[in-house]
Amino acid sequence: MDFSSKLLENAVNEVSQLPGIGKRTALRLVLHLLRQPKEQTGYLTRALDNLVTDIKLCKNCYNISDVELCEICSSHKRDETTICVVEDVRDVMAIENTAQFQGMYHVLGGKISPMEGIGPNNLQIESLVDKVKAGKVKELVFALSSTMEGDTTNFYIYKQVKDLDIKISAIARGISVGDELEYADEVTLGRSILNRIPFENSLRQ
Amino acid sequence: MDFSSKLLENAVNEVSQLPGIGKRTALRLVLHLLRQPKEQTGYLTRALDNLVTDIKLCKNCYNISDVELCEICSSHKRDETTICVVEDVRDVMAIENTAQFQGMYHVLGGKISPMEGIGPNNLQIESLVDKVKAGKVKELVFALSSTMEGDTTNFYIYKQVKDLDIKISAIARGISVGDELEYADEVTLGRSILNRIPFENSLRQ
After folding, report:
1. Which residues cross the membrane (chains A, B) (predicted)?
2. What fold is seen in the domain A64-171?
């Protein structure tokens, strides 16, 4: 692309560094900002600058937080003995939205992925194992995405805690509520059948 | 969405103001920035801030430019008597890429669109008419997109310059080079037939 302005070119290049945003989309976004009042861009850039400079991770669960100990970890209503292991803040938000989980979280910050150069030491795995060894925890719930990387990460943690006296579970995989059986993939349907539950339990909302 | 951090929430809200970016995509982009080194976000926000504060419009063609008179307007190789009327900088870039146009541009900054509250006075139409009235211009080439708004804008300008002694043309509409006739829409194919050209001309690259 041949730009008529270096300023425009710089802005487009920086925006197109974001994942899933190519040069054309970047140009569209930047031209949108130019059509808005200047303050609008100021709000955007200040919000981003403040975020990356002031953001903290909760010192207990490593979730993104504005304070040292996040809202969930500092709540007295949560069950400290059950810990749900998730990948990032989006998973915490998704599970909190269901209002079905009363325990605590432990945010790994990713999955083990040799292809992307992410090893166990880049994640909050040691702190999780330490937490379990401290003795308060009774159950660990794995809630990573069911991909190769997710399974690897689950298994890596499992090996380190399996001899400790805790229950280790994983969230159920199966057909989505409301889905038609004929359109489900075989692996998911297979798991649904293998991990079938007493009918009375399926009546719970 | 329930965010664990006000800083995160602010950043996501600001990013999701951009066109075509919803809350989920905004969260994904913001989390990407958090995983990058802080400087990366600094480059992005500085590029955007510099753009909106320092950007200039060329005083002749109103294209985005770093200097008072853009490269095209200050070039001695361009034909000052032919002016191509376009909507924004993207159209200038697209036409320059073809290397088929040696004249100058006039960037309107949009199209007349009552629905979006854009009237003739929000666009660089008066300056275009003044330029034509000054007498140097021999041909005006309309290259707005062929939508209702584009046609309205073309016609609005046409009415004001049609009595002046200039040639007024519009870029050709027709089947794309390499396209199959059977997949073309009727309106485009119809225009291709109505505006057919001497066969010898079609041999030019």
Report:
1. none
2. Dna Topoisomerase Vi A Subunit; Chain: A, domain 2 (3.40.1360)
